């Protein structure tokens, strides 16, 4: 198999997460390189979203180190962490979390503007990403008129506009019917290679998880590798 795995983009070293009154997991170890995808599964309430928030720099772990693009995320001041996230991380949520009154191009371009791109560059890049991902932009419809699949593709374009080295996705196909689920999953799992980024994706859906290069599960209070054959069909 011609695996293309680059230097680590994400490294978890002994990471433990707690919420008030409860330990979720401890001693989590994970290394994820550019070009590679990992699916995170686990029972409801096991801490999958908390793990993503921790990698996003928004939930400091109780112990351990989170390194993104070579930098210790919680060893830097908050303002630098926000900048580091904008420069290196893209995020796709279950429901897209787009601004419904804006057009898809505006939703995507806004992320580019916030990432420091000039107006012409951000709008040009937003349009070309949406064209590439198959989202209609011609008549500039409001985002809330798009199909569920088109909305998630718009969310993917928004996550990509600042050329992240790490892409995070929390149940990105959870709100879609099977046809859209398959096409959005196919798109997401093509990105590590086509965009030279790493993908860490949380899902309840075994068919989606099987598309990843590797699977891990939060179980028994830690992060465990899951033995599973890769299924890209
Ligand atoms: N800020 C918080 N304060 C208290 N409890 C929290 C907080 N955030 C999350 N929790 C609890 O921590 C546990 C893990 O939540 P999390 O959302 O990470 O789980 P999950 O594995 O993603 O669940 P699901 O699959 O249902 O989305 C849950 O029991 C949740 O209620």
Radius of gyration: 17 Å
Task: State the total count of DSSP E strands.
Answer: 10
Bound ligands, named by name, code or SMILES = adenosine-5'-triphosphate
What sequence of helices (H) and strands (E) makes up the elements? EEEHEEHEHHHEHEHEE
Structural class estimated from helices and strands: alpha/beta
Poorly predicted spans: none
CATH superfamily of the domain at 10-101 and 163-225: P-loop containing nucleotide triphosphate hydrolases
Query: Which bin fits the share of residues in helices?
Result: 25-40%
Question: What is the CATH architecture term of the domain at 10-101 and 163-225?
Answer: 3-Layer(aba) Sandwich
Distance between the first and last residues' Cα: 16 Å
- Percent strand equals 25-35%
- Number of H- or I-type helical stretches: 7
What's the CATH class of the domain at 10-101 and 163-225, please?
Alpha Beta
CATH topology of the domain at 10-101 and 163-225: Rossmann fold
The pLDDT mean sits at 90
Strands of the biggest beta sheet: in what spatial order?
Answer: 6-7-8-3-9-10
Question: Care to describe what's here?
Answer:
By secondary structure, this protein is an alpha/beta fold. It has a domain at 10-101 and 163-225: 3-Layer(aba) Sandwich (Rossmann fold), CATH 3.40.50. Helices cover 34% and strands 27% of the residues. The protein contains 7 helices and 10 strands. The protein has helices at 48-56, 78-88, 104-114, 119-133, 148-160, 178-194, 206-209; strands at residues 8-19, 22-33, 37-42, 63-68, 71-72, 89-92, 166-170, 198-202, 214-219, 222-226. The protein has a 6-stranded mixed β-sheet, sandwiched between helices. A hairpin with a 2-residue loop joins strand 4 (63-68) and strand 5. The protein is globular and about 50 Å long. The two termini are 16 Å apart. The structure holds adenosine-5'-triphosphate. The site of adenosine-5'-triphosphate (ATP) has 11 residues, from helix 1.
């Amino acid at each position: 198999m011609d695996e293309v795995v680059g230097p680590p983009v994400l490294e978890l070293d002994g990471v433990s997460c707690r919420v008030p009154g409860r330990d979720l997991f401890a001693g989590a170890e994970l290394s994820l390189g550019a070009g590679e995808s990992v699916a995170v599964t686990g029972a409801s309430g096991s801490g999958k979203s908390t793990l993503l928030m921790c990698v996003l720099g928004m939930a400091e772990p109780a112990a351990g180190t989170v390194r993104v693009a070579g930098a210790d995320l919680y060893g830097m001041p908050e303002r630098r962490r926000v900048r580091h996230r904008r420069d290196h991380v893209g995020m796709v949520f279950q429901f897209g979390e787009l601004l419904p009154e804006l057009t898809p191009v505006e939703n995507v371009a806004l992320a580019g503007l916030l990432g420091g791109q000039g107006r012409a560059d951000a709008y040009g890049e937003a349009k070309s990403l949406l064209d590439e991902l198959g989202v209609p932009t011609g008549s500039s419809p409001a985002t809330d008129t798009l199909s569920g699949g088109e909305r998630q593709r718009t969310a993917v374009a928004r996550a990509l506009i600042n050329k992240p080295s790490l892409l995070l996705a929390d149940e990105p196909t959870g709100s879609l019917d099977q046809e859209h689920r398959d096409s959005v999953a196919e798109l997401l799992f093509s990105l590590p290679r086509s965009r030279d980024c790493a993908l860490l994706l949380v899902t309840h859906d075994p068919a989606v998880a099987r598309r990843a290069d590797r699977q891990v599960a939060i179980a028994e209070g830690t992060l465990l590798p899951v033995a599973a054959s890769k299924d890209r069909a």
